[in-house]
Amino acid sequence: MSLQFSHKPVMLAEVLDALRPRPGGRYAEGTLGGAGHSEAILAASSPNGWLFGCDRDGAAIEAAQERLAKYAGRFELRQGNFSELADWVPPESCDGVLLDLGVSSPQLDVAERGFSFQQEGPLDMRMDRRQQTTAAELVNRASAEELARIFWEFGGEPQARRLARVIVRERACRPFETTSALADVIERVSPRRGKRAHPATKVFQALRIAVNDEIGSLRIGLAGALKILKPGGRLAVITFHSLEDRVVKDFGRARAQDYTFTGGVDVPELRQPRAPELKLVKRKAIKPGAAELSENPRSRSAQLRVMEKT
Ligand SMILES: C[S@@+](CC[C@H](N)C(=O)[O-])C[C@H]1O[C@@H](n2cnc3c(N)ncnc32)[C@H](O)[C@@H]1O
Questions:
Q1: Ligand 1 atom 14, closest CA
Q2: What predicted TM-score, i.e. pTM, was given to this entire model?
Q3: Is the pLDDT of residue 1 over 50?
């Protein structure tokens, strides 16, 4: 596997336990990354299990091709957004689907990708580098209101408005081009004062989510994943922050209900019974065990939710 792409799969045993790969089974991963999870799924479904994998990142697809080469003929890979899964994979064809959200280690570690405030690099943050909008474009073009909304909604940044105002003022003199230029301004406006996390953590997370439309893709991707699952097939989703976990939790709860509401303006709301589309395999999210937490710090905020199509 290329040295450039090294990512330790999070909660691997728990994912295999959730998806229960078996010979002849068909699986999909919308977030291939370095293909650690996908390789394990192909191994566990030997000799003839099949996997469709996609990732927005071209570097991930290259790394995955290399890593999965020994399973040639048993997988198909594609660069693209998992929000399109249902366009590429036939309906009700999969026994298991995995979404392991967020960024991979190489995306964070390669300075030129511009995801990390700890490394000097262009203010980029695009998972798919064919996409036009970069973080720099957003930071240099969006209105103060829009930036404040992004920082608050996607980062929970308490100083959202103040930071947005300062950014808009500073960019009039010199547009932001690098990760460190932005991190420096944030640190100046909101000094660390003994806090453990760097003051730019929330703004960088928020910009990354906005640049890649991560929440919009997740909503569409979850619905698509459910479409391509066979009845009895399982969906496993690993999230890394509360915003995306809430989307997954709400999706699961809504589709597991045996009723829906009808009605609206001037019409009383009525509960209508209906067949649930899925069941929650566990009510609560699964968290990494102590051994993984000590060995892989990036697993700290991971949560796994597992659902089964009815
Ligand atoms: C945490 S990593 C996945 C790691 C992978 N499971 C492994 O074992 O190596 C997340 C990956 O998902 C990709 N990604 C995030 N959102 C995506 C989306 N909407 N569509 C496709 N890929 C996405 C990122 O580019 C990144 O490579």
A1: 31
A2: 0.95
A3: no
